[in-house]
Structures are given as C-alpha cells and as structure tokens.
Amino acid sequence: MFAELGHYALVLAFVLAAVQAGVGYWGATRGDGRLMSIAPSAALMQLLFIGFAFAVLVRAYVTSDFSLLNVVENSHSAKPLVFKIAGTWGNHEGSMLLWVLILALFGASVAAFGANLPQKLKTLVLSVQGLIAAAFLLFVILTSNPFTRILPAPFEGNDLNPLLQDIGLAIHPPLLYLGYVGCSIAFAFAVAALIDGRIDAAWARWVRPWTLAAWLFLTAGIAMGSYWAYYELGWGGWWFWDPVENASFMPWLAATALLHSALVMEKRDALKIWTILLAILTFSLSLLGTFLVRSGVLTSVHAFASDPTRGVFILALLVFFIGGSLALFALRAPALAPGGIFAPISREGALVLNNMLLTAACATVLVGTLYPLALEALTGRLISVGPPFFNLTFGPLMIPLLLLVPFGPLLAWKRGDVYAAGQRLVFAFGAAILAALAAAALTGARGVLAILGIGLAAWLVAGALTEPAFRAKLFQAPLGDSLRRAYGFPRSVWGTMFAHLGLGVALFGIVASTAWQTETVAAMRPGGESIQVAGRTVVLDSILPRNGPNYSETVARFAVTDAGGRQIFLEPAKRVYAVRGTPTTESDIATIGFSQLYFSVGDILMDGTTTVRIYWKPLVTLIWIGPLFMILGGLLSLSDRRLRVGAPRRTRAAVVPAE
Amino acid sequence: MAMTRKQRRLTLIAAAGAVLVVAVGLLLFAMSNRLTFFQSPSDIVALAPPPTDRIRLGGMVEEGTVVKDPDGTVRFSVTDFSATIPVVYHGLVPDLFAEGKGVVTEGHVGADGIFAADTVLARHDENYMPPEVARSMENAPSLPPAGAAPLASATP
User: Fold this and answer.
1) Which structural domain range is residue A613 located in?
2) Which one of A126, A393, A531, A646 is least enclosed by Cβ atoms within 10 Å?
3) Rg of chain A over all Cα atoms, to the nearest angstrom
4) Which 8-state DSSP code applies to residue A444?
5) In this structure, how many other beta carbons lie within 10 angstroms of the beta carbon of residue A246?
6) Are residues A609 and A497 in the same domain?
7) Residues of B with CB below 8 A from A583's CB?
C-alpha cells in the first residue's frame, strides 16, 4: 500500500515540476506576478512529495518489505539497521531517487530563502530547476522505479554488496550528490540570466553562496570517498584516477574555477560571459558524471549497448540540457553587456590565470576519462588510462597553479604589484626552503621530486598565512593591536586563508605518503618470528574466529611494539558474508601522529600461517585533514556572505558602459 | 604599466593560448607514451612487446599453476586457451583470485618471457568479471555472465 503511495507521490511530483517549469517560464516572460508566484509553491510541494516517496522507500528497507523487487535485490533482514537505511541509496533506483530528492531540496531552498531575489530572476531560476526535476523524475518513473513489486514475495533478500556495507555508504553518496546537484543552482541562474538578458555584479553575489555550498559538499564528498576507498579496498591507495572518481573530480575543478571567476564578476563587474559559461559547464560535468556512473557505460561499452534504456535516456537528458544551454549561450551571450578588460598584473588577472589552469587541468581529466570509451566504441581497441597518464598531464598544469596561489590574495584589484607581493612572500619562500632542507635531512635526501614537493607544500601553507599576517601588521605593530585588527577582518579573509592552507596541508600528505611509504609483505605464524616495520616490532599474536550479524570472520591479531615499549594491537581480518558467500578483506589502521600503520591480510592457512601486508604511510592523514581546512574556509566564507551580503541589491545599472 | 586596451586583450589571449598549447602538448605526449594497452596471451605471443611497454594482460588463471612462495611472491599462468603466459607478482592477490577464474594483471613482459605484474585485478564477486576478461574469453568453453561492479584490485 505504502509503495503505491510512494510511486503516486513521484508522479505528482513530476506534474508539479512540469507546472513549475511551464507556468514559471510563462509568468516570467509575461511579467505576470500571480503566475510567477505559483513557482515557489510548486517547488516546496515538490520537495514534500519526493520526500514522502523517499521516506516510503526507507521504510520498506527498514522493515525489510520483500514484496519490493528493489529491497529483495539489495537487502537482507539480518543486515544491521544503519546499512538497511544506507542501503536505500546503495543501488541504482534508490540513488536516483536520492538525486531527485536533493534536487528538490535545492529548488525548495531557492523558493524559501530567495526572498531578496528579484521576482523575475527567482521565477526563471525555479523554472529551470523545475525542468531539470521533471526530466529526472520522468527518468526515475519510466526506467528506474524503486517501487516495483515482486510476486510472490520471497522470504529473504539477496543482501547488499559487502564492500558497500560500511559507514562510508551512509555518508559518501549523499554528500557527493549534494555537491553534484548543488551545481544545478548556478546552472539555473546562468540560464535564467541568459533568458532574462541581464547580468551584473549582483547576479554574481546571488550565485556565489550556492556555488560555495555545492563546492563544500563536493569537497567533503570526494575526500570522504577517498578515505573510504583507502581503508575498504585493502591496499592503501587513496586515489586511483578511476573514471568514477574523475566523474566527481571534474565538477569540483570547474566549481573551484567558478568560485574564483564569480569573485571577479562580483568585485569588478568583469568576466561575465566566462562566468556564465563556467556555471553551465560545471553542471554539465555533474550530469556527465551521473551519466558515466549510472548508465553502465564504464563497465563496458558493450554492456551499455546490450541494455541501453537507462543509458540512452540519461544520454538524451545530457544532450538536451548541455546542448540546449550551450545553444542558448551561443544565441544570447553576445547580447549581454561585456565586462571590462583589465590589467594582467592584478588580483583579477591572477584569478583569470587560476581559471585558465583549472579549466585546462579539468579538460585533461575529461580527455583521459572519455578517450578510452571513444576508442573502444569506434575501433574496439581496449586501453586503460591510468595514473601515469594523469601524472603527466594533470600534474604539470597544477604545479604552476600551486606556485602562483600565494600571490593571488596579495595582489591588489585593478593594478597589482608583483614586486611588492614578492617581497611579502620572502618569509613564505624561506619557509619553503627550510621545509625542503628538513625533508632532505630527515629522509637522507631520497627523492628530489618529493623534497621539492614538500617545499611547495610549505610554500602554500606559509603563503596562505602571509596575507592575513600583513593585513594584521603582525610583528610590525604591538601584538594586541594586531589581534584587534585580525578580529575585525571580514570572514572571507579567513576563508581564503584556510582554503589555500588546506591545499598545502593536503599536498604535504600526498607527497610524504607517496614518496616515503614502506611496504612489507611477509608470511607470519602465531607466536612465530617478529618483523621490523618503521622502527617497530610486529608479531602475530593469535588467529581468532569471530561472528558478526551477517558475516563470519577470521581475525589476525598483531601486536606492534614501538621503541619506547608501548604496545598496540591491530586486527585485520578476512570476512565472509553469509548470503552472497563473498570473501572480503578488512584492513586495520593505527594512527600514530599524522602517520598510519596499515595492516591487510591475505591467505590464512589452517596452521595459522598468515600472509600480511604492512604499510607505513608517513603523514598520510594530512591528505584528508587538508580538505577539512578547505571546508572550514568555505564555511567561514559562506557565513561572511550571509552577514554582509544578506540582501544584495542591484546597485549598478544593468548595462555597464565599456571601460 | 599603462597598457592600452588592445595590449591587455592581447596579453589575455596570449596567456590563454599558452596554457592551451601546453595542455594539448601534454595530452598528445601522454597519449603516445602513457597509455596501457590491453592484450590477451595470444596477442603477447604474436606481438612480443618490448619490456618497456606497460601492458594489461587479461585471461583465465590456468588450473594447477598457482604457486605461493612464503615471501609473498605469487606465480601463476594466464591463458586464453590458445596461448599461455607465465606471470610473477609480489604481494597480496585480491579475495576472488583463484585458479580457473578471470584475472587482469598489469605490468611488463620481462626479457625471460615472464610477465612481471605490479597489479592484479580479479573479478569482484560471483557475478562480475572484468570486461576485458569476458571479451578475451569469448571463445572459451564456458563464459561466465558479465555484470556490473567496480574492480577489486591489488597493487603493491
């Protein structure tokens, strides 16, 4: 009964979305206030209906309602509750429902919190949102209905893929989708501006908080996913340049560029057309990501061709939204008032360079992701584009960007002075040299590139601290004076500092853990010989059988003793999930300072002989602490905007005379 | 400092052009040097690729060939039923690595004709096998069904 109501709610939500798109557009173009006022209500109701449908599906999972095909295929009554709930989106149908739920959430947020938007712009934004929602609801209803019944209902389900039975599943997809789908708001604003034919600095102020929010979620989602892969897949890698990862990384790069270009538009009323294009591209890349992950095209071009309904549907949506928005852009962008041209050496000049490098880097990732698919489809040749390819293309484009990051905030708007900025960065340069020398001394000068990398990371961290330090006149004025100044900073100053600092912190982790990790593979017996790993003594203490709620495991208990005699125990395991009979490897990790010891076991023989792989990963946790700093920076920046730009008004004339 | 409008525009275009040229150059270079080609055992026998080429070798782990040394070295043979290539790998193999099952390995063909793998990918669960494996065994006696799941992998 509930399932039918859920299905019906989805159909109603589709109708509401269509009304929101159609009536909204009609009202906005006719300038009819009564028609326009329908759009926000429709957006709120749509959230209500999709929310209801989603709640129904969650309920079906929690109560193990095996009359639903989707629940049978992906759940089991013995599964722990948290994975029953998370399992709702651990499959194609459920995750698409989550996708449209989040889309509706963003649409409703614009409706609820967009009170300071001009009514026409707001209605057009909601209309575009409604169109996206209608298209994807149709996709869910026609090809991916999670409420399909099965008759007769089986007594038990097939359980969820064991790799997904992890707390990561509960958090990672929702965060990532909040990021992906959040990009739709900037897209809707861009399309609305193109339809409206008006764009100005106030537009950028409205768009930036939404983009910032989407960027925050994307950052958190990607970092979270990376840590999940790191501990779950059992071999200690944290980034694979896998197409699924690239699918989320490309919108992140584009959104990062968009954040920076919207800044130029807001402050200097320039780069307008480019910003619009970036907003369209960012969401297009999100859609492309959805297509790559959801159509099955990655498994094989042939698998895609053998069951093409879903893939072709998403591909059609992709072509419609990307093609449509780009066509609109081509038609209308020339009519928009162009922004001014500015001096190359200036804050805006630096931000343009940032945009060029980020988009170029994004393009190389795009080529690396799509080229194998195109080659297989066209010639049938199979290739894999892996880390060596991306290290050679993405890497060299990132290095100049990272070198230039500390300069950006130190350059003035309009006309910057590289020499003065350079003088201020002398401290940061000194810190970089010191860090590189320290790294060389500590590691016995192993790996020149890694030592330079450490220097670059220190340059980024110290460079990020430089701007607030000079602004507060640290060490130039009395300390109390500096603190008072620092207290009075707009929060966006701290936002920039933390975001750039986070980049440096993450780079420390990436360089150190890649260059100086050690790997030990050994066969050990309980109570047998010990081995040495990173100055610690490791012995296999015992082998223990253990039972979980829906699996049984064999745990290898290792004792690790450091030079000071402190002992810790690690318990990596081999698990077998009863229902699917799939074995999985559960690694165990000990965090020591910022570094980690990572244990993963292979075969455990009858006599207890265990093959174990032990990694020592120096500073590896910094890889994920860096994004935490970026998120903190984003949050500070976002809170600043809410206070300071609570009600952005159109202060400038819509048409700005050329410079 | 006082640049004309035209000069400023030219600077912008020149910078954009430079970034574009560098990006395209890197892509072309990477494509000629850093792509890994998938080959079946028959391909390797026929083409005899030099040790410098990074190759993905896919096929079936031949029955009775897996030898695990105590130091973590694993030796096995990969076959597509018309040719067989011996493989050596140091490290832990994935959970579903087994004789008679599909496997993809990445590495180089050594001068001795033994394939030195640095990565071993196996089918992920009972319903999945890497697409390359399924494809290279199209003529094999029994073809397991292909489904959709990410690769489980192991790399030292």
Assistant:
1) 518-617
2) A646
3) 27
4) T
5) 24
6) no
7) 95-96
